[in-house]
Structures are given as structure tokens and as C-alpha cells.
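hi! just following up on the protien thing from before. the input was this:
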Amino acid sequence: MDTLHVMHIVGIDFTSAPRRAKPITVAHGEVEGNVLRIDRIAPHPDWASYEAWLAQPGPWIGAFDFPFGLSRELVEHLGWPLRWAELVRHCATIDRAELRATFKAFCDARPVGNKFAHRVTDGPAGSSPSMKWVNPPVAYMFHEGTRRLLDAGVTVVGLHQGDPQRIALEGYPGLVARLVTRASYKSDERAKQTPERRATRAAILEALEKGRHPMGITLRIKRAMRTQLLEDGTADWLDAVLCAVAAAWAAQRPHFGLPLQIDPVEGWTAGAVHDGLL
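and the predicted 3d structure came back as:
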């Protein structure tokens, strides 16, 4: 393998409350051309483990499953900083309860049907508004995730210049999965981990392994790992791999497939369609 054309890729399935039963899950692999080989998936059951990994030297390109920004409408309304690093530092001074109360007060003052403020990327990405604190609690993921990216000194493309050997992109596994099927493929509730959802995971894996999806990345994984991805009803492992697929796709494109101008408050999701996307 020509190491000049091989890039270490990581995909991160994130949680705002890592624990042994629900760790942050990091898929590690290498992309050469359009072929992504995932060689290991590592769980990080606490912040110390995750932060230690994040601080290690690169090079890598990674897609992280949490929002990197907040709606400009929301931030301007609150009078918060309009540059990413300053915004992240400000939010880090607010505890989770205060963050929720602030966002809830904003929503309570708005009409039914337009409670949440959306980022521009939410539409093409198909993602929940990053200020949402329940189902899923992505506001808490923003709150916990961004401060650790900033503390680790990584480059957050379009938002913050850090170590050029560690490149962080906002990822969303649902975006990649929906390129194959819009059927539900996971649930954290055991009673909802149905044969139908398992069949959907199988369809997603087959499409990835054959490269039959719009991103065109062909996945290579070992049989035991494939079994784990198929049988894990929460799809934490699969979500980490889906993020790795997005990172591998981005690694092949100018400016990682992102808009040349990214709103420094909102950010952009890797793979979300925009006018300049090739």
C-alpha cells in the first residue's frame, strides 16, 4: 500500500454522557482511493479515556456525530459571541441546566410549529436543530463535544485553525444511512430492536460493502466486526462506521466537500448538499 495515498480515518459515535453501557465509540481505519478499511472500533466509557485519545498525535481526518455550531438566529438573539472559539468557550461556562433553561425560554416565546431555531445545514443534512435538548439531546452533545475539540487543539474545518494533522468534521450517520434507505435501523430500547431494523442494518452494510451509494466509498471490514455491526441493535458501532464513511468521502474532496464559506457560528455537516459541492 502506498502510504502517500493512505489516510487514517476515524468515525466517532458520540454521547454527552459516556459510560460503560453507552461509551463514545471510535471507528479507526484507512482510506485508499475509494476503499475504506476499518481495522478496529474502540469504546471510550469516560471523558478521561476519550480526551486522552483526542490529544494523541495525528494524522487523521475524523467525522464526529454531534453538531459543531448553533443557529445564528439563536446566538444573535441571546447576544452570545459570533466567532466559534469564543462561542464554545462561553457555552462551556454555562452548566447543562442553565443551557436547557435558556434554550427552553427561547422556544417558549415562539409560536407553535416554529419553536426551534435551525442552522442552514440542518435542512440538507436532515438533522435535528442543535439547540434541541431531548430526543435526541444534541444541545448537550454540542455543549460537551465542542469544548473538547477546542481543548485538544484540533483543526475544526472552516471554524477553527488548530493542528493540521488532526482534522475534525461534523458528521451525521443518519445522513449517510439515508443515502441507502430511509427505514429505521436502530433503537436504544431493547423492545424496539426488531428483526426489521436488523434487516435494514444488513441492507446498509451490503450497500457500503459494494460501494452502491452516492458517496461511492467501498467498505472493507472483518467478518467478526461485521457481525457486531449487524447484531448491535443500538447501532453505535454502525454509526461510528457511517461517520468514518463520511470522513473518507470528505478526504477525497477539495475543502473536504464543505462550502468554501462556512458560517462561524453554525458550521456545516460533512456530506450535506450545497451549491459548491462537486
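Residues 18 and 46 are 5 Å apart (CA to CA).
Strands lie at 6-13, 24-32, 35-44, 60-64, 154-156, 163-170, 218-220.
cheers
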